[in-house]
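Design review, sub-item: ligand-bound model
Attendees: FS, YL, KQ
YL presented the inputs for the copper (II) ion complex:
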Amino acid sequence: MARRSKFVLLTLVLALATAGCASNAPQDSLDPAGPFAETIDNLFMPVVWVAVAVFILVEGAIVYFVVRYRRRTGDDDDDMPVQFHGSTKLEITWTILPALVLGLIAVFTIPVIFELNAKPAGALEVDVTGQKFWWGYTYRGGQPAFGVNEDIVTANELHIPAGQPVYLTLTSPDVIHSFWAPRLNGKQDVVPGRIHTWSIQAFEPGVYSGQCAEFCGTSHANMRLKVVAHDQAGWEDWVEQMQSTPIEPISGLAAEGFELFTQKGCAGCHRVEGAFEAVAADSPPAPDLTHLFSRDCFAGCIYDLDDRNELEAWLRDPQRKAGSLMVVGEITEEEIDALYAYLETLE
Ligand code: HEC
Ligand SMILES: [Cu+2]
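KQ shared the predicted structure:
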């Protein structure tokens, strides 16, 4: 082998090996963290072993024949091996064998498909909307078992109680998205005009990241999400916080920001409970900001909310997220400070 191709081959192998060894892989679908993901994993692993067996048999036979019947020096060019094109026995064998293997896999797969699509008993229900380019969540009120009495509306971060099933109803107003939190369940496409359902559940409290898995436009790659699973006490605190109404600031910088929220047009797109409830009819769907600062991330979970610079940069230029549907006019640095002071009160 030439030196150059040896080098290329080595680099490829090394790249593959190192990429497969990520120590921090929060979206590892081979590391299930809940019963639905585990159900998939329990099906996936045996199928992998079947595939490995088929691979070894087929590749093994190829390698064997290549070596055993290779052309040797001194072989006579006219000495063709016996041809068996059109052998009925062989044709039937290699049609029936794979069909049997696939049939066997189907026997185990079909019940799992039904199991994953069934509505789990006693589940928390959440409506999920795929938007350009963020996820909106509405927890329907009237779910006293979970303390959810009034509707809770939030975005990007889906909070759930650990150890309990959560039943999602997913829709999209315009383009196709796909909801995917790999450690909690497989992908669920969200097609406009259709109503999809999907379940997730986490064994343990923790943060599980995910993302939109269907190309949906310019910022598709920036449409991430987080599922935050709480223990019982944490869940109750979160619900209580989400069902409170933020207090309107009456003085200082925050009060200025409150005024600017209307003057700068923010209120035309964003809802804040108790303060700005009527968005403009022609506004693009925008995240509910009532409890903005209860979240860790914003704008499709690509920016940290604890980093003040990120949010300020966002207000300065929402197009830093390519294709973002947030449009604002000129804003001065003083106005950004005031707006930030107001937004910070929305906990
Ligand atoms: C034309 C409608 C529109 C206007 C006006 C608007 N926004 Fe937005 N805003 C959006 C949209 C759409 C998003 C979601 C962008 C994304 O994630 O792709 C967003 C996202 C945000 C977010 C992040 C929320 C989250 O949880 O992801 C904040 C904070 C925000 N806007 C604040 C403001 C402020 C403050 C103003 C006024 C200066 C404003 N917006 C004006 C449409 C608007
Ligand atoms: Cu999407």
